[in-house]
User: Fold these one by one.
Assistant:
Number 1:
Amino acid sequence: MVGIPQLREASWLITGTDRDPVRHLFVRLEEAVDGSGVWTVELSDCRLHTRDGGHAIHRYNCEADARMAVALIHTLGTHLDPLPTWNPQQREHARWRVRAMPSEPASQVRR
């Protein structure tokens, strides 16, 4: 829909089982479909409230720069020390779970 940012990718840095993961970080990649060409990357710490500094947003003027930022976040996330799971005695290296959303060509965007 024109004017509303469209989600293009969402990813979570998780530990634990895939069935019941512990979410540590959330990354969202959005495209503005208003003709501006602006892409937004949001990074959230799942355990902190926004008011406590657990949220950052940056806007990019092109898709390539935004996707590079997301790739860097994913790379850095894999280098963190082991993180907690639901078991208080267990820590493990985190992994990313990524969901890419299909994008419609501009000619097919509903107006």
Number 2:
Amino acid sequence: MQVWIDGTATTVTHVAELDAILGDEPPGEVTLASDAAWRTLHISFWRDRAGLYWESETDILLAWGPVPPGAPGNQVVGDAEYAYDDPRFALPDGIEPFEVTHAEARQAAHEFLRTDGRPTNVQWVVKP
């Protein structure tokens, strides 16, 4: 997998290598690109929150938020209007849509590195 930061790519094969690149204070924008297929996970880090954007051969998606307790992972809805009305997409108090914690963003990056697939720890909304 290639990790792109400020136009520079670094090859990573293990979570420890990825964590070393992200560091304690992650860079603002990071793109993880699959070596095996056309799939990318873009992460925007800011203060204590992050945003995730997924691209693949068939999907362009935004992370809505973390998977609520009891909901199945890796769900996708057609747009944000449906997500607001779907109880499976409920957000914890104080969480804004399209935001996750840094820890959840790292978890998504780790899963993508391990599986080469779309992370399942967040809910996804089709990008308008």
Number 3:
Amino acid sequence: MCRETKREPAWVSAIRLAFLRGQVDVDGVMEEANLPAGYERTVRDVLSTMADRRLLEPAGETGERYVPGPVLIESDRFELDYSKASDGGAHRWHSSG
């Protein structure tokens, strides 16, 4: 996260939303990444690239919403030690195990 602007890369927000909410869209990434208006096209490009790389899969007919793709799902690690992870940000969830 950029400390000066309290923003993070769109792809980081997209991954977090994919895991925590099960779906990703432009508005959700804009809000999660704290991006100002005007970055919608960039976020669409990021999501499209992530879909091309199979991190996300398009859901629905409009192509505006995505769900976790096979690469993202298969990359999940369930036996990691999060005891020393930061309390804020992407590491705040707990391992189920």
Number 4:
Amino acid sequence: MQAWIDSIATAVADVAELNAILGPEPPTGVTLASDDGRRTLHINFYGDRSDLYWEAEIDLLLAWGPVPPDAPAGQVVDDAEYAYDNPWFALPDGAEPFKITAAQARQAAHEFLCTGERPTNVQWVVKP
């Protein structure tokens, strides 16, 4: 995997290398790309809040928020309007859509490193 920060690529082979990049004070923007360049996870850190953008051959998705307890895995909705009407996409009190915690962003980065696939710890909506 490659981690891109400010147009500079760094090879990431394991969790320790990823943790060194994400560190306690992560850069604002990090793009993780699969070795074949066909899947990318873009992460923006804003203190304890973050947002994620997933790009693959047929997917352009935005993270909506964390997966609620008992929700079916791997859910994707066509747009935010449907997410607001979908009870599985309900957000914790006061949470804004498209924002997740920095810890959830790190978890998504670790999952992408380990699986090479779209992270499953957040729900996704198709990017408008």
